[in-house]
Design goal:
4-stranded mixed beta sheet, 18% strand
Amino acid sequence: MRGVRRVVLLCVPALWTLVSCGIPATGVVEAGGPAHGLVPMLRVYLVENGSLVAVPRRPAGAVDAESAVMNLLEGPTKTERAKRLTTLLPPLTAAPTSAPTSAPTPLVSVPPTAGPSDGSAAEAAASAAVSVNARSGVVSIHLRYVSEELSDLATAQLICTAAEAQRIADTGTGPGAEAVTVKVTNARGRSVEGSGERCPED
């Protein structure tokens, strides 16, 4: 009995250390397999009052540069729009043509399809419009659906989102110390490079 009490007393300080460091303790997993550690949050960069803002989102799967960029290009969620967050990046899907709009018309549209293939068709169209490749600390983003030059702030949205996501992918737990270079290229071959060193963290 004495040995059991000793083990319990040793576990309490360890749990307190995790909580005091700001790392949430893993709760009870009610379904699925056992927990394999903490799942990092994805942060995309949106715009508020002309400035970049890091917005946390819970990823559907593993965090990497490609998934982060595609998540960013989906635009602000309803909740984010209610907080006056916006994006300067052209959307991947075309706006409805039933009513006139002053918004710029994107060059690629995702045609509606019926049945369970909706998600696959949308993913295929997105893949044809955007490619993201990461290699040796460099993330290359090719926006095939964008012919005009992006504004500096729109480019910064992509650079900051991709750079942080790639650092998470490289370390497996969270943003690492190594700088990541991001190269953004539009449909006309115009490229801009940057890193996430000066991106806001919150």
